[in-house]
């Protein structure tokens, strides 16, 4: 995202540096983040999370690592709905876990899960389901009914969920974010949630995220190893996160409004200049999932755009098997650059 961060976050960082708050993460600083995360979840998402259940980690991928290595049987497979955020596919194998890819269903341009295929993957031995809500890369914000249907499948199979909710603050049209673990006692009992202020407030390099446990049994297990995981969270990252959740609303509101304009501008530019590229306007995130299958590109569309338009996008193939004809386009940039990028893509497409 090209918009810097909230002035309140910058100010908190400057103050911390001026005061020499550069040591190891103290219980007081970690506690402040837990209190602010808990308040944010309650006020913004109606989720009652005790501060004691909010644990600092370096990043959401570390939380995923904990969820699969500490809460599921050794060697059990991980279900990743596709298309997926690329590391969901590449990360579990580094923890000796195989991935079962489950392609999603697109209904009238809206991405959702294939529950029968997820059920089959659990029956084939998988134990963890990775839920990405809001969904990267398609931008779907799942409804309470959809989340409930997932919980039923997971419960039926005695599985677990890793709920990645990092994009939750970046929603449009007043859409409601429903934390998965908040929907029922059963969901709370089988879920580890990973989230972070790092996407919305643009601070991923500061290395701080939150792993949230939602039942006492998981919290108790966490106490046995959590000190080692917490060691990865940076003090300045935790300070910045606390400021973001506590004071960063106004800045975030402006950013979301700007991104809302960008997702619409992207739609109108594509419709006018490159109508063969499929685009469903996302409900959340600053990512567009572009269907380039109708273009006569030989090979990877991402490579084509890089070479012939000077625009870097993510190759859809990295998001799962069967998505070679797609690209992932990040539109969190100034509008003149977005305009320039789409015009360059359209000009390259016109040469085909
Ligand atoms: C869905 C999703 N999860 C996790 C991450 C990475 O988060 P972190 O840097 O905290 O591991 C990203 C980054 O883009 C993301 O889009």
From TrEMBL:
User: SUPFAM superfamilies, alphabetically?
Assistant: PLP-dependent transferases
User: MF terms per GO, please?
Assistant: cysteine-S-conjugate beta-lyase activity; pyridoxal phosphate binding; transaminase activity
Boundaries of each Aminotransferase class I/classII large domain copy?
A: 5-345
Pfam families this protein is in? Aminotran_1_2
What's the Enzyme Commission number for this chain? 4.4.1.13
**What Gene3D superfamilies does the record tag this protein with?**
Aspartate Aminotransferase, domain 1, Type I PLP-dependent aspartate aminotransferase-like (Major domain)
Listed A to Z, the keywords are: Aminotransferase, Lyase, Pyridoxal phosphate, Transferase
- Identify the CDD domains for this entry: AAT_like
Question: Per its Swiss-Prot or TrEMBL entry, what cofactor is needed?
Answer: pyridoxal 5'-phosphate
Q: Please state what class of enzyme this protein is.
A: lyase
* Family per similarity comment: Belongs to the class-II pyridoxal-phosphate-dependent aminotransferase family. MalY/PatB cystathionine beta-lyase subfamily.
Under PANTHER family, the record lists: CYSTATHIONINE BETA-LYASE-RELATED, PROTEIN MALY
Q: What is this protein called?
A: cysteine-S-conjugate beta-lyase
């Amino acid at each position: 995202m090209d918009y810097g961060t909230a002035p309140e976050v910058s100010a908190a960082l400057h103050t911390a540096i001026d005061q020499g708050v550069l040591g190891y993460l103290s219980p007081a600083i970690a506690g402040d983040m837990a209190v602010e995360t808990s308040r944010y979840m309650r006020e913004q998402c109606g989720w009652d999370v005790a501060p004691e259940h909010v644990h600092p980690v370096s990043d959401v991928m570390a939380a995923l690592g904990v969820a699969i290595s500490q809460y599921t049987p050794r060697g059990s497979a991980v279900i990743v709905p596709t298309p997926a955020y690329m590391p969901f596919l590449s990360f579990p194998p580094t923890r000796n876990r195989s991935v079962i890819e489950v392609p999603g269903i697109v209904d009238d341009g809206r991405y959702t899960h294939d529950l029968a295929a997820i059920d089959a993957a659990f029956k084939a031995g998988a134990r963890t389901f990775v839920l990405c809500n809001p969904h990267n890369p398609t931008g779907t914000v799942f409804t309470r009914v959809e989340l409930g249907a997932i919980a039923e499948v997971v419960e039926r199979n005695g599985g677990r969920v890793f709920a990645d909710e990092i994009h939750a603050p970046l929603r449009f049209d007043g859409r409601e974010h429903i934390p998965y673990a908040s929907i029922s006692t059963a969901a709370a009992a089988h879920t580890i949630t990973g989230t972070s202020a790092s996407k919305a407030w643009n601070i991923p390099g500061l290395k701080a995220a939150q792993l949230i446990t939602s039942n006492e049994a998981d919290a108790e297990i966490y106490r046995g190893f959590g000190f080692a995981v917490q060691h990865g969270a940076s003090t300045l990252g935790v300070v910045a996160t606390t400021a973001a959740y506590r004071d960063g609303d106004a800045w975030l509101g402006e950013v979301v409004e700007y991104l809302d304009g960008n997702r619409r501008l992207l739609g109108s530019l594509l419709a006018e200049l490159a109508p063969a590229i499929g685009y469903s306007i996302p409900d959340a995130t600053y990512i567009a999932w572009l269907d380039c299958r109708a273009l006569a590109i030989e090979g990877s569309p991402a490579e084509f755009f890089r070479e012939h338009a000077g625009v870097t996008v993510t190759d859809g193939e990295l998001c799962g098997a069967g998505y070679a004809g797609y690209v992932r386009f990040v539109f969190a940039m100034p509008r003149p650059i977005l305009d320039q990028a789409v015009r360059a893509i359209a000009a390259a497409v016109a040469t085909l």
